[in-house]
Amino acid sequence: MTGSSGVVGSAVADEMHRAGWQVRGWDMRPGPWTTHLGDLRDAKLRARAVAGADTVVHTAALHAPHVGAVPDAEFRAVNVEATAALLEQATEYGVRQLVYTSTTSVYGHALVPDDRAVWVNESLQPRPRDIYDETKLAAEALVRTHRTPATTILRIARCFPEPPATQAAHRLYRGVDVRDVATAHRLAAENHKTTGTFNIAGPLLFHPTDTRQLWQNAPALLTHRAPETAALFHRHNWPIPTRIDRVYDSSKAHRELGYHPSYDVTTLAATA
Fold this sequence. Notes:
Elements: H1 7-18, E1 25-27, E2 34-37, H2 43-50, E3 55-58, H3 72-92, E4 97-103, E5 118-120, H4 131-145, E6 150-156, H5 164-171, H6 178-190, E7 196-200, H7 211-216, H8 218-225, H9 227-235, E8 246-248, H10 251-257, H11 265-271
Helix pairs in contact: 1-6, 2-3, 3-4, 8-9
């Protein structure tokens, strides 16, 4: 597990451990699941971490908040070149499977609506808008074309900590609980014969036919589709977005991996 001390990596490691996996973690920062401290680009450390592993879960990366603060060359070195080296090491040591943590951010400019919300499934062509998107998409291409080990790419939706009102709004269409993200990674590891690219987002409230109304009058549509959820927003004084510009669809992960997101606005409200 790379990035085992991060928000996503630590949640995935915890989920894998509870499911009976022996977890070996690798990060530059200490953490409860991190057994190997060091840089992803350190070849000797990489060999020690990968040797004997059945599955590699690769969550480590530079992220969107680093854009502008970290040189583009560093993004390429960490997100692309280190991923390529990890794939080669995994092949050398006979790793069966690699699960790669990507992001829905790779869709980039394709997420910009015209006269309706964008329905985002895996058939939508990514149009990267910054170095983060570019390097994550480039790493995806490396992972996808590598013959061994078998590979699965998870494009995860927004899951980092935010104020409750913001998180609740995002959970309607573009967010996901990190615990559901962790479950998706476990399912990908368990279904090692099912490869491909999957969006991982929260529970789906809307239909593909809703895209025009989502853009024109999201509160009315939410009240129609999910009245209990709309009532929760009113009860907590959380503003419902007047417009929703996109919907992340995880139906493919549901069909092929058995992914059923459990944490919605109701569970968020219970802890707010």
